[in-house]
């Protein structure tokens, strides 16, 4: 009886801790959302704590009237979707051959790829290399220059190695070649791992702003994250968003920044539930060694 009582007390303590952690994780998002839906006076006077004060959608209306923000939003989708597709293709193309024991020089290739995870030329030589190749201020640069991660190649290679060799041998007996085995056997079986790696790539693409800020100079090519960085760090909202006296009365730079942050987060919040089942299955990708 006493054991059950202690177990119940322990369970309640765990529930309380989990609830507190959830509140700590969710509160910043709730605060930003509430501030974006509140009046400038309420935000400036720190009246917003949890729920919106003087509820309105003025900040979101102004954002969707600002052409620069809309262009940046479209660019962010372009770089994320196309870039993630290129990432997955290159990662699978590197991981699949490395998972085959019959590949000559396999260990040396693995060592060289792993070596780049800790040692690289550095930021300045990388930038100079892009400049010498005439790749600055071009959309394709963000796609191909960051097309593959050695870390994810190793993870996916290890996942491919965990697939029993007997399956591949039986497919070869039926006349399947390497491409058929890859597309018909390995990719379907590794779908959770590929979805997990793809999610990591997509989040990195969507949140990336540093190299986009250095490489791209044309305002029509920069993604939303670079615009958001300018808004937060430089408090540079732009002429179109704050052009009228009525806008100044109903908006502030803070409410516009908060609204832009929410708009930037929404795509990841929408996508994650659809791939959550794959993420749960692939969360241990690379932990099984063949």
TrEMBL record:
<feature type="transmembrane region" description="Helical">
    <location>
        <begin position="108"/>
        <end position="128"/>
    </location>
</feature>
<keyword id="KW-0813">Transport</keyword>
<feature type="transmembrane region" description="Helical">
    <location>
        <begin position="181"/>
        <end position="203"/>
    </location>
</feature>
<keyword id="KW-1133">Transmembrane helix</keyword>
<dbReference type="InterPro" id="IPR035906">
    <property type="entry name" value="MetI-like_sf"/>
</dbReference>
<feature type="domain" description="ABC transmembrane type-1">
    <location>
        <begin position="73"/>
        <end position="275"/>
    </location>
</feature>
<dbReference type="GO" id="GO:0005886">
    <property type="term" value="C:plasma membrane"/>
</dbReference>
<feature type="transmembrane region" description="Helical">
    <location>
        <begin position="76"/>
        <end position="96"/>
    </location>
</feature>
<dbReference type="InterPro" id="IPR000515">
    <property type="entry name" value="MetI-like"/>
</dbReference>
<comment type="similarity">
    <text>Belongs to the binding-protein-dependent transport system permease family.</text>
</comment>
<feature type="transmembrane region" description="Helical">
    <location>
        <begin position="140"/>
        <end position="160"/>
    </location>
</feature>
<keyword id="KW-0472">Membrane</keyword>
<feature type="transmembrane region" description="Helical">
    <location>
        <begin position="12"/>
        <end position="33"/>
    </location>
</feature>
<feature type="transmembrane region" description="Helical">
    <location>
        <begin position="256"/>
        <end position="275"/>
    </location>
</feature>
<protein>
    <submittedName>
        <fullName>Carbohydrate ABC transporter permease</fullName>
    </submittedName>
</protein>
<keyword id="KW-1003">Cell membrane</keyword>
<dbReference type="Pfam" id="PF00528">
    <property type="entry name" value="BPD_transp_1"/>
</dbReference>
<keyword id="KW-0812">Transmembrane</keyword>
<dbReference type="GO" id="GO:0055085">
    <property type="term" value="P:transmembrane transport"/>
</dbReference>
